[in-house]
# Entry
Amino acid sequence: MIQKLQRSESQKQIDHSNELKRSLIDFVYDAEGDLATALESFSAEQLSRWAKPNLAGLNRTELAVDMFLTEGSVGTKSVIDFFIQETATLSADEKTLLKGWQQGFNGLFVVRCVEASETAAESYTLMNWLTEKQYQVCPTDEQSCDLLARMSVGEIVMTRLLPIGETGWMLSGPLTLLGKLGKPKLAVAIGNFKKWFPHHLYGDAPGLKAAAWDSVRQQYEDFVELFGGEQVTMSGHELNKKFQRYQEKAAETQMAAAGIDSSKSLKENVQKAGISEEEIDDAMAALGEESAAAKTLMESPKAMKMVMPKASLPDEFRSAVAVTVFVHPRWGQTLRKDYASFEAAIAASDDTPETQETIDRFTQKYLEDEQVNAHVWHSIVDVYAKPLEASLQRVLNNPDFRIERDLDDAIARYDKPLEPTLPESASVPVHLHNLFQEAIAAVGKAEKPKKGKKKAKKKSGFG
# Structure
């Protein structure tokens, strides 16, 4: 009886949240002026991001609007605050509920449990794959019955969650069911999610997000200390050797922060943590035939170095005559093997049509290449503002272009964000690192040819 009453109260809360959200949606769709302009701009930005890789399988416009409700702003005021200001009939509880929706987030979830009545699913337990946090979630009238019926245990779901009450959450907007994915395809789904929703990465775990950003800053500091600057150019061979030393130093810094002395053996570090030698010996004995190798690993002072993965540059950079690295505490690292040629053309004293054509070709390439971010552009402009301004005037066919005033608008038109998103080099939670390693191993195992059989042609991507 008590459980039925609780479910009844929960359903009332969901129904009320549905009504309130419909009012918010109508308010946004009926708006004119600045709010309408803000919605159009926000939607265009999201749709552009979802084009590469293509976010398919759901109504993208509907998703953009759903995100705008809780993330959008009109000037310095959020859409929700604007709605509250313009709607005099809202109660104090409704205002609190609305403000809570600003904590909503996009996530990639796995269904852990389905709680159903005799006729339909009433709630789901979802785990965010990116943070391992679990949520008790209720469906709303925005999701079709057919989709909800397919949300069985193990299904991977991409959707949005909004808070209701102190501990409950509700599905918001469209959802995408990706199936019961194996580890390789799950790793691809996580990679795509990071590209589609960079600002929602670890959106429900501020501590994880802060740690990831701290790792980018630490990488920057380690790089500058070893290489001597924020921008360096050298041969790919030389850079690869230095890059390996940089990786080793970064690993030692991380271990030192964790209280691990990389100059000591694993056994010495374990004993320092308070585990006795007898306990270590007992653990070694339990390994049976493997104990001899394990003992060698434990006692070797080189063990800490041995377990560090070897790092190297991709082949295309290792063999390059000159590679330029741009580093920043938030943008991370950008490698270019063509920048030395670009710089030589810009720095040339002659102003011949041939030189201009060369510069313009690089300028166009750097505008279109998604790897050349806003930080790289500003770094080049700091040194070569005048020749770049002239080149951009020609490439953009705009003789009135002024680099100090118009650069950000120009690169934004080429879908380059003006604020950094978490770089690929950032550290990831242990469970994600393990998943990616297992996915790579699974792909390698699947592609390994069997004896006596012709090796199949390698496919691109996972799966």
Summary: The CA atoms of residues 281 and 294 lie 11 Å apart. Strands lie at 73-74, 77-78, 105-116, 121-128, 134-138, 156-164, 168-179, 231-234, 323-328, 332-336. Confidence is low (pLDDT under 50) at residues 1-5, 302-310, 454-463.
